[in-house]
Amino acid sequence: MKQIWAILSGAPDADRVVPPTGFTVWLTVFSAAAMAFLAVFALALSLATERLSVRWGQELARTSTVRISAPAAQEALQTAAALTVLETTPGVARARALSDAEQEALLAPWFGADLPLDALPIPRLIEVVEAGAGYDAEGLRARLAAEAPGAILDDHTRWRRPLIEAANRLRTIGWVSLLLIMLSMAAMITLAAQSALAANAGVIRTLRLVGARDSYIARAFVHRFTMRAALGAGLGTVLAMGAVAALPTADVAGGFLTGLGFSGASWLLPLLIPPLAGGVGFAATRAAALRALRKMP
Amino acid sequence: MIELHKAGYSYGQDAILRDVSLQLAPGSFHFLTGPSGAGKSTLLKLCYGDLLANTGAVKLLGQDARDLSRDALAKVRQRIGVVHQDCQFLDHLSITQNVALPLAVSGRDVEAEAENLAQLLAWVGLSPRAHALPPELSGGERQRAALARAIIMGPDVILADEPTGNVDWEMSQRLLSLLVELNKMGKTVLIATHDLGLIRAAKAHVSARVLRLAGGSVQLAGADL
Question: Do residue A110 and residue A210 come from a single domain?
Fold first, then answer.
């Protein structure tokens, strides 16, 4: 804790003893910025898929469809029978048959707007909205088979499960990406710190000659790399948040892109990335410095 | 203070020091002489823990060098001032900052020591060069700055490795007088040098033991010096 405070408060004496120049400055800032940029998108992806998973799960779980495939003469009768069954089924909030116009609108994306619905043997669709814990699908199927033989219940289970699974996997991939990004950042900072330590072997030798402890020498490097990592990550985060904010809005993009972004308080989450990067820089440099100093004669 | 008992050191197969026994008593003044490559610098490095003896024992301020952790060795080095021939400065820091380095690394408040620092720089004659960078100094100025850095912590022992190697006669006399003055203040001084003129000049001012390093072992030099 004391050391973290020393890092944050500047550790000016220790910092000054290491020459300020070197390519490792830009390497660290640039890699931290690039990694933070990617991290913001990985975070956005994780949050978006989480929202999608919840939304798909909720929406699909609350609705189902009954399809009436019967000869034209029996369609109205069987539809009415199915509606009667549905109205008396516990767990069904409401059920209604779609109108011709609504069915036409559903089919229009595939067959065009001027579809002659009445000339085609298209089944009648009944939209079912569930209530509370939902209905007993098997029981409802049995009752529908008895009252309206042409009625087929589709409770969306078949395609809801893979959708939610896909969303969950995407979310996991997002979090794993975040972890990999942080590990990559740690690896890059470690390399840069090792390079800086090797380049400053003479400085380290002089510091030891005058009685510097390894922890003092390490602090000089740790402070520098922590600050560079946090600064670079800050720049990358700001750029990425700008890019996410500039994504098309829901009206323009629709679908999945609508959700790829932050909403409300989740806009604060990317702001955790710069201090997190600073923490990664701190841990990676401290470990690299102490390891390198132990090996130095 | 610093004690070597049958200490030996080898670089690979080459034994450069064999069974060296030496005692630097408090307040004593020693010269260590011998031809180039005789092992003077190696012996000095044993005396401040930069090298560990392969055989025998070395005690630094009463502690066996082999038993010292890195932190403990750092603490010992704060009590042993070392002047190197090449000075080993941090070239991006001013002379004042270089001289103050031992204070900074030991956690002391450099600002609070500003007056002592200024007095020390005046004592070694470097006040006008206080803000210069090391590469801007002459050889003599660098050696005096290295001496100032070596004594800023008020060490018990001062080890100097060829401190007059890169300076003219006049400057070497000045450096010598500073070291003699420090010895008179009670500091233990060990100077490694092959400059016999310097040793003869010192003998006029201080009671110094002259040790000759040859064939890997140390002998007390005769009166011919």
Answer: no
Is A230 in the B-facing interface, judged by CB distances under 8 Å? no
CA B113 distance to own-chain centroid: 23
Q: Is A10 part of the contact surface with chain B (CB cutoff 8 Å)?
A: no
The type of residue at A83 is: L
A109 lies in the same domain as A13: no
Q: Touching check for A296 and chain B: CB below 8 Å?
A: no
Residues of A whose CB is below 8 A from B84:
209
Strand segments, DSSP code E, in A27-160 are: 63-68, 92-97, 124-130, 151-154
Among B62, B65, B21, B68, residue whose Cα is nearest residue B45:
B65
Residue ranges making up the domain that contains A119: 70-149
A215: which chain B residues are within 8 Å (Cβ-Cβ)?
71
| A276 and A189 share one domain | yes
ipTM of the complex: 0.85
Residues with Cβ within 8 Å of A169's Cβ and at least 6 positions away in sequence, in order, are none
Biggest CA pair distance of chain A? 103
pTM of the model: 0.71
CA distances from A216 to A58, A212, A294, B80, B174 (A): 56, 6, 13, 19, 35
Q: Please, what CATH class does the domain formed by B22-52+71-220 belong to?
A: alpha beta
Task: Give the residue on A whose Cα is nearest the Cα of B148.
Answer: A210
* Tokens of residue A58, six digits: 């909720």
Interface contacts (A, B; CB < 8 Å): 57
Domain boundary among A122, A149, A176: A149
Which tens digits make up the pLDDT trace of A95-111? Answer: 999 988 888 888 777 77
- pLDDT tens digits for A129-157? 888 778 888 899 999 999 989 999 987 77
